[in-house]
Amino acid sequence: MKVIIIGSKGFIGQNLVKYFEYKNYQVWKADVVVDYADTDRYFLIDVSNSDFNTVFHFQKYDICINCSGAASVPDSLKNPMRDYYLNAVNVFKILSAINQFQPECKFINLGSAAVYGNPQTLPVSEDAKRNPLSPYGFHKLQAEQICEEFYSFFKLQTCSLRIFSVYGAGLQKQLFWDLNKKANSGETFTLFGTGEESRDFIHVDDLARAIERVAQSTYFRADVINIANGEEVKIKDAVATFFSFYPYDIRYSFSGDSRKGDPLNWKADILRLKSLGYHPSVKMVDGLKGYYDWLHVE
């Protein structure tokens, strides 16, 4: 299978490149990052005026996986136009290029569980009400609608993945990265929320396996699929597990104040994903230990 991964220099993109190359797929890459060492099957995208025509004009692919885009709720509140462009407009541009040059290429867009907002019931299924709490969530929802548009009117084979909370070695942002920085300060610190908030975490290795199952088995009829492990983990428990690996006591508390745009509780219904043959393989305690070891390698 020939695969093009757009956003190949990001955290998820890099891991997908490694995974698909390990599985002996033919992999092409595209990103805005200038890397003179990475010239083999690599397309440099102009960050000021993204144009994906050259990506699809001369080379044929079986599937395109879009890992590009912004991934910050607070950032989307500060700069919604940038978030809209990266998370919605670029999806339209990619699909336009596919439609023009190789409409047989299948397309997977990496979306977000942020489209749900605060679910009314858990676990949340793909048919649940969508109620984004941030510009980021709205733009990810618009990207899904763009995928549906190109399927409905141009018969492109598309699929949107609602990805929950991804973590793993190499991630340099979000909860556990921030926890490590605070722990290293040696000072007492305060975390947002009450600790009773919950997330459905998935290790990046499991994410890669899940995406492969989708690529091989879904119908690509503007499908929407939850990508998670179907396990609700309270933030206070995730924090305690992560800090248990440190050789010293860490003093912290929860402020009780929620951060704007953040949902309270998440647990995914992953029956649709499991029907494609996916099963979680990385236990969270092992995944967090691996992340801790990566952070503290000498």
UniProtKB/TrEMBL annotation:
Organism in which the protein naturally occurs: Plebeiibacterium marinum
UniProt similarity note: Belongs to the NAD(P)-dependent epimerase/dehydratase family.
Domain NAD-dependent epimerase/dehydratase stretches: 3-228
Domain of life: Bacteria
Stated name of the protein: NAD-dependent epimerase/dehydratase family protein
SUPFAM superfamilies registered for this protein in UniProt: NAD(P)-binding Rossmann-fold domains (SSF51735)
PANTHER family named in the record: DTDP-D-GLUCOSE 4,6-DEHYDRATASE-RELATED (PTHR43000)
